[in-house]
Design brief:
Length: 277
């Protein structure tokens, strides 16, 4: 809150005192809620379909919206009194403008919180619909929910994958790479891209993204292309993606090749395997 507002005295709830005192409790509640909300959002980056986390987020947003509305009401009541004080010369123009800015900022914060609440509610509703298709509607998705033939909006991948499968795949990527924050977000996007572009299951896609990134240090389009190659290689040769990637890295190093030669190495191994039966 702007320092200029601290000098404004208003009557709120029958008590006259500094505006800063009237907002003290509200601001503390806001900081506490925001701190907890950040923790929930951090966890949702790795578990976007976790209904418990989404429910917590919705609860915190609801409390924050209520608290922000209370702050806005207090500020508007103070603004009405400050307008008369300004006309009487009891407060300066700078203080009055600062209060106006605080009102505008709080209104903007409230709109943003309400938008987040709508999006969170939509995510929960979507998950409940998916769960209903499986026949286990209890307000939350069961951990053992089977794949269903419906697109899952929050993940943006092809139809037919359950939330838990996706969560497990993202956990695999995080475990293999140790990635967090923006780096993890990039790997998650690459996972989504290859999953919807080639026929494979979520776990194989997660294994490929995690292991290729770990072994070759690739990111973005290069990571997606190499991961797709490893998934296809594993499918053709009926081999484990993780082990195949590690073997490919060993072969490239042994023959003094580079990552660009990955496709050629895999083709050679496949051809040899087919000849040997």
């Amino acid at each position: 809150m702007a320092n200029n507002i601290k000098g404004i005295t208003v009557e709120i709830g029958g008590e006259t005192g500094p505006l800063s005192n009237a907002l003290k409790g509200i601001n503390k509640t806001s900081r506490d809620l925001q701190s907890e909300l950040k923790e929930v959002n951090r966890e949702l980056k790795f578990n976007p379909g976790d209904t418990e986390l989404l429910t917590q987020k919705q609860t915190l947003l609801s409390k924050q919206i209520s608290n922000t509305k209370e702050k806005l009401d207090t500020l508007k009541e103070a603004q009405a009194q400050a307008e008369q004080q300004f006309k009487n010369g009891d407060i300066g123009e700078e203080q009055y403008r600062a209060l106006q800015r605080e009102v505008i900022k709080t209104e903007s914060q409230l709109k943003n919180l309400e938008k987040q609440a709508r999006e969170s509610n939509a995510a929960l509703s979507k998950i409940s619909q998916v769960a209903g298709k499986v026949g286990d509607v209890s307000g939350k998705i069961a951990d053992k929910m089977k794949p269903v033939s419906i697109g899952i909006a929050g993940v943006g991948v092809a139809a037919g994958v359950a939330w838990k499968e996706v969560d497990d795949s993202l956990d695999t990527i995080a475990t293999k790479t140790g990635a967090t924050g923006q780096q993890m977000e990039g790997l998650e996007q690459s996972f989504k891209n290859i999953y919807k572009s080639i026929p494979t299951d979520a776990q194989a896609a997660g294994d490929a993204i995690g292991e290729v990134n770990t072994q070759f240090g690739l990111t973005g389009k290069a990571l997606e292309d190499a991961s797709s190659q490893m998934v296809k290689f594993g499918s053709i040769n009926n081999t484990d993606v993780t082990t195949s990637t590690q073997n490919a890295k060993g072969a490239i190093e042994a023959f003094g090749l580079s990552t660009k030669d990955l496709g050629g190495v895999l083709d050679a191994v496949t051809a040899t395997s087919q000849k040997l039966g």
